[in-house]
Structure formats: structure tokens, C-alpha cells
Amino acid sequence: MSFQKRWLPILLAGIFVVAMVGASVLIGSPEVLFPEMTAILCGAWIQPKQAWNVNRPRMLALMTTGAVFGLVMNLAFPDIPLPVRAVIGYAFCALCMNIAGADMTPMLSAAILPMLLGTDSWIYPVAVFVLVVLVELGQVALERVGLRETIDYHPFRLPIEQALATWTRRLCVFALFAVPAYATGNVFLAVPPLLVAYTELTRPDFTLRLRPWRAWAVLAIAGIIGTLARDAVVNFGLPSPLVAAFAFVGLVLAWNGLRTWMPPAGAVVLLAFLVPWSNPWLYAVEVALGAAVWVCAALALFPGIRPAFADKDKGTAHNTPEEGTEV
After folding, report:
1. Is 326 helix (H, G, I), strand (E, B) or coil?
2. Is the whole-model pTM more than 0.85?
3. Residue 314 · residue 252 · CB < 8 Å
4. 8-state DSSP, 154
5. What sections of the protein cross the membrane (predicted)?
């Protein structure tokens, strides 16, 4: 993807992120700061072709439903342990995406994030709804001026047996690695953006499976950027919107430098502004370790294209300009 040709959508996305952070600070509500919006902006504005097979009504419905579900689980079932609620949330999102015939994987973050943060305010799902609407309006404007392709959505549903088998495997692997992380308090090993990245990498034709080290690198670097940004706010007292602006620039440089515009990395950066903060480097270290686990699990435990295949067949259609998007 050409940075020069996409500078305006990138700039607009950066302004959106800074405005969201500023609004959160202005009204004193952390629920307004939804980290996954950075990922959605990458997939819906920055990349010329939308990163997910979903139309706008389904995107809004799935994201809002996920946010409401995560909040309701906190309010209605506070005594259910976090690991169990997270597994239920993952299964719920899988069911919703299959019913909708769409692959809006950021829904996983919308549902599981409030569980990790203990969100108990209805401001959260309202904010998710409003933010997604704003992104969709911006997407329409970008389409009309020719800065991105129109959405080519085709409902896709696997046969029931195949869908059940695929999502059961994803759910089991998720539980295998995420439950111990949550149960031991090491939640940064399985923060929602890593779960989104893992789920996307389990798709057999996901092009970034050919370059797993880049998938890990961009997520690990995003963790470092997020750590530096949060540390600047906590220890140096710099304004959050200003720090978010510099963090977004760092993120864009990482995306562009690695030629891997992977949307979940954006959410990794912004999530650092919300998570509990003790040891400043704990977030970066655990995100890097978690990313390695989730990337390796997706490649080792799920069939699909792999680096060895790329070596035998160089120059094929897998060499796409937008790694991190589906083909």
C-alpha cells in the first residue's frame, strides 16, 4: 500500500483518534475511548479495500451487539469468573458473525474488553454505536471522492458442520491460552486486539500467514508504542490527546516500515491508555509474548497457507500490496 497515495485517509484517521481521546478526557469518561476504533479506522478508512467481509449495517449491528453483551455480562453475572465470561463472550461473537454471514472480528474486542476492564456504564455501548456510525459516514465520504473502493460484501456462511468444527477449534485454543492468562492476572498476554489478530490468522487464506514474523513484529512494536505513550501521560503529565497524536504517528511508521497494515496493532496502542498501570514495561513485554503465542498457535494449529508454501511459489497472488487483509 502506497503511503503517499493514502496520506489523506491516514491523516483523517489520526484526527479521529485524537478527537476520541480528547472527548474522553473532556467529559471524564474512559468508556468513550474505545481502542478498537483505531483498528476499524485502519480497515475501513486507511486500507483502500475494506479489511472485513461485512457491510455497514452489519458492522454497526455486530459491534453494538458485542458491546452490549460484554456490559450485560458484567452487570448481570458479576459472580461468574472472568475466564468463563470471556469464553462465553468469544462463543457469542462467533455465533453472531455466523448468523450475520460476516467476519467482523473486532466484535470480539467489543465484547471482551468491558469484561477485562470491569466496565459497568451504558455509556460504553452508546459510545461504540456513535463511533462506528461516524466511521461509516466517513467511509461513505471517502468512497464518494474516490479515496477507497466501495464495499463488495457477499454474505458467507460455512455449512453448519464445518462452521461448528472451525469455531469449536478456535474456541478451544482460545480457552487453552486465554483462561490461564486471565486466571493468573496476566491479562496483557491475551488482550482483545491479540484475540482479534489470532482469529484473523486462523483463516486459511489470510495472506499475513505467509509472513508470521511481521504479524508478531507489528503487534510487539505497537505494544512498545503504547507503553511509551501511557508512560508519557502517567509519569510526565503530558496531555493524552497530544500523546495519542504522536503515538498514532509512531504506529503509522511501524505499519508502513514493516509493510504490514494490520488493524489490531492500532488497538494495541490505544488500549495502553486504559489498562491498569503498575510496571510501565509489563504491558509491552506481555503483549510481545502474547503475540508470539497467538501467532504461533494460529499457524501451527490451523490449516492454511504458510511461509514454506510461499518459498515454493514466489511471485503468486499471495504477494499482495496489503498484507494483513483477506484475499
Report:
1. strand
2. yes
3. no
4. -
5. 7-27, 59-77, 84-102, 122-142, 171-193, 213-230, 242-261, 281-302
- Domain ranges in the chain are 7-308
Instruction: Count other C-beta atoms under 10 Å from residue 57's C-beta.
Output: 12
CB 112 within 8 A of CB 86: yes
For the chain, the residue count is 327
Q: How far apart are CA 113 and CA 25, in angstroms?
A: 19
**DSSP symbols for 233-285:** HHHH---HHHHHHHHHHHHHHHHHHHT---HHHHHHHHHTTTS--SSTTHHHH
DSSP code of 63?
H
Q: Which residues pair with 206 in a beta bridge?
A: 326
The closest alpha carbon to 291, from 210, 183, 184, 177, belongs to 177
pLDDT bucket at 308, cuts 50 / 70 / 90: low
CB-facing half-sphere around the CA of 157: CA atoms within 13 A: 11
- For residues 116-137, one letter each, b for 16 or more C-beta atoms within 10 angstroms of the residue's C-beta and e for the rest, the string is bbebeeeebbebbbebbeebbe
Distance CA 254, CA 248 (A): 10
Tell me the HSE value of 135 on the side-chain side, using a 13 A CA sphere.
29
Determine what percent of the chain is predicted with pLDDT higher than 70: 93
pLDDT tens-digit map of 70-108: 999 999 999 999 999 999 999 999 999 999 999 999 999
3-state class of 206 per DSSP? Answer: strand
Closest-CA residue to 19 (of 240, 261, 302, 276): 240
